[in-house]
Design a protein that fits this description.
Largest sheet: 7 strands, mixed
Low-confidence stretches: none
Helix content: under 10%
Radius of gyration: 13 Å
Number of helices: 0
Strand content: over 45%
Order of helices and strands: EEEEEEEEEEE
Number of strands: 11
């Protein structure tokens, strides 16, 4: 069982940057895909960015070119660098891991972008 804890959320002005971190309690070496999801005002969570163990990444169209996902298997960490933030990026960001039939979620971290 892997527990995920997000950090790095907060309030930022439009155009600014934030870096989210996700710390795993155990090894993520065998977690095939790590990713970040976003939930906006009670809507269902939607994938923002994902990264496989091989380093293959995918992004939601709305964040391509602005967000960068990365993972450090040695440190059991996943990151989301968010640049050029806009008010539509406001929401709760969740770290997610999927692999070997298991799925893990963090508790979420709030990101608020002000205009």
């Amino acid at each position: 069982q892997v527990q995920l804890v997000e950090s790095g959320g907060g309030l930022v002005q439009a155009g600014g940057s934030l870096r989210l971190s996700c710390a795993a309690s155990g090894s993520i070496l065998n977690v095939a895909v790590m990713g970040w999801y976003r939930q906006i005002q009670g809507n269902r969570r939607q994938l923002v960015a994902g990264i496989s163990n091989s380093g293959t990444t995918n992004y939601a169209d709305s964040v391509k070119g602005r967000f960068t996902v990365s993972r450090d298997n040695a440190q059991n960490m996943v990151y989301l660098q968010m640049n050029s933030l806009n008010v539509e990026d406001t929401g709760v960001y969740y770290c997610n891991g999927r692999g070997q039939g298991d799925e893990y979620w963090g508790q979420g971290t709030q990101v608020t972008v002000s205009s």
